[in-house]
Design a protein that fits this description.
This protein has 257 residues and is an alpha/beta fold. Helices cover 25% and strands 19% of the residues. The chain starts with a strand and ends with a strand.
Amino acid sequence: MIVDYHMHLRDPEERIDHTLEGIERFVQTAAARGVDEIGFTEHVYYFRQTRELWTRPYETERCVYDLDAYCDAVVEAKRQGLPVKLALEVDYVGAEQSRLAELLQPYPWDFLLGSVHMLDGLAIDQEPGIWAKASVEEIWQRYFAALAELAASGHIDVLAHPDLAKIFDRRPERIEYPALDGVAVEISTAGLHKHVAELYPDPDMLAGHPPITLASDAHAPQNVGRDFDQALALARAANYGTVTVFDRRTPHQRPLG
């Protein structure tokens, strides 16, 4: 079994396309690349049902789409037998995490993908962002503290790009990975196309053998399953024989590959 459990439902030019036709494009690429199942994980801040949580222009300018329409498109694709899962990329929002979970509760999610992009309103994956305000050591410590808090919240099922703090190839002398019990972590090929030019996560982050998913973080249908040969190689080198699949937020292990 090969899954791609991180992608954003866009057209080939990366414009929002929350339609059945848009889904079919992703399914076609997945089939061509030997990916058995895909999960759509649009950014939570794109949906006006979550508008109360956002204050930065980056989120408020994007918060104009309808969560019901997005969910309806994916649910219809599932009804038609397409190998897709309904999911969302859920940002870390600190004290507002429970409120965000309340807003998302009515929908029939297969899994929720948690990510930490911001600390105190400053971006980790953009420059200057938080890098102009804190030391490398402090950023990594705070990033992993937020990641562990999100993992322990019970509000998400998988962690996206779990060592995102390495995106600009700035690392402390010693990295102490947090305990992330109760969630899966994704092996993501997205980092290969960032400044760091590495998979997420570092192999050392898999030493405790957490459950895994595979992810491309595709923002266009042509990028589904991109570089999965490298993701699979990392998983096998870390002695994984199974991959996690989800149905209505219940995980199951399936043979990998």
